[in-house]
Amino acid sequence: MKEKILREIYDDNLKEKIRLKRLENGKVIFTAVPVGKMNDNVVCMEKPMLAHIRLTSMCNLNCSYCYAHDNSKTKDMSDEQLFQLIELCNEKGIMNITWTGGEPLLRDIFIQALNKANKCGINQTVLTNGKLLNQLELKDIPKENLTFQISLNNVWENLSYIDDVIKNARMLVKKSYNVMITVMMKVIDISRVENLIKKLVAYEIPSVRFGVEIFVGGLKDEDMNEYEMNIKKMFGDLYDLREQYRDKINIFYQFDKIRYINTGFPKRFLICEAGTTQIYIDNNGDVYPCPLFKANKEFYCGNVFLQSWEELWKSSPMQKFRVIKECSGCEYQCMVWCRALVYGKNKNLYGKSPYCLHRLDANY
Predict the structure, then answer these.
(1) Phi, psi (5° rounding) for residue 253?
(2) How far is the C-alpha of 130 from the C-alpha of 310, rounded, in Å?
(3) Beta strand 302-303 with 123-128: parallel, antiparallel or unpaired?
(4) CA distance 37 to 184
(5) What is the DSSP string of 162-185?
């Protein structure tokens, strides 16, 4: 496979050409080529390059912690509107679409939507619970520029429950699709985490990412203090597990300490995409800076079928996220800086993350 530039846009705020590039090994990356001097106080891109789109509110599961639980009964946008939205994303220079739900595979035109975006050269990520993957006609689904992110929902309630999901994931891996398994951590005995890792290794799953629960959506009325205190006690053992299985599977944690390397994107954009590089579009076209805040109407920006792209990007809720500064003097590209983690604890957007990497035990 030859290296190829899939899409290229110029962003006047960054004074850079942003390229979506596929490498010879099939990996897709973003690169930034300076064209002028970036303003030191840039707070967002001129327009978003990432779109997070909820294909449907329908779901075949009912997970208590789901961020999409907001008791709304909104009607899914029509097929015609969905195709219009993909065309709009193409026109406005979107580089990556993340499809979510509900369960996106329940949408009848799921495959048609994937192919339409693929023909535009847009990279895509599908967030799925994986239960229905074996029902897909894979011959109709592109392999290039597509990642299936499969969430192992309810895994801690019943490990055998997700056997079919892992088999489906292995099927995609064997067919050369890009696959990432994701798991929300519970406060459990570390042996249960190891049992899961052993199962993933046995099924030849290449990568898994563990994250902490976010107290929004279905968990918005719960108290996260006890969870936070006890989950932190597991971090050391989780790092030991990664070391033990490092030659068998790639294990990532949301609380990993990754040092920021300047590749052309400000660190603030990388630690939080909401309102800086990303726009979220709900199943009826409603727009928010981030999917994790769709249950909070104070962050409603408008509707993509009623307001212009530019109006939505300049809306007040987008600005609320942009004025929040990154932690001064921090060297990490921090994945726990997430404002939803802060909001879940403090009910506001401001302050340090409850999982601040500098506050974690230095032995981790």
Answers:
(1) -120, 145
(2) 35
(3) unpaired
(4) 41
(5) GHHHHHHHHHHHHTT-EEEEEEE-
Q: What is the DSSP letter of 188?
A: -
Question: pTM for this one?
Answer: 0.95
3-state secondary structure of 265: coil
* H-helix or E-strand spanning residue 267: helix 267-271
Which pLDDT tens digit goes with each residue over 173-194?
999 999 999 999 999 999 999 9
Handedness of CA 329, 332, 334, 336 (dihedral sign): negative
Per-residue pLDDT tens for 22-71? 898 888 899 999 999 998 889 999 999 999 999 999 999 887 777 776 66
- Which string of b and e fits 334-358 if b means at least 16 CB within 10 Å? bbbbbbbbbbbbeeebeeebbbbbe
Q: Which of 71, 70, 82 is nearest to 107 (CA)?
A: 82
Could you tell me the CA-to-CA distances from 163 to 71, 132, 199, 282, 333 in Å, in that order?
30, 13, 9, 31, 34
User: What's the half-sphere exposure (Cβ side, CA atoms, 13 Å) at 132?
Assistant: 17
Q: Letter for the amino acid at 262?
A: N
CA atoms within 13 A on the CB side of 87: 7
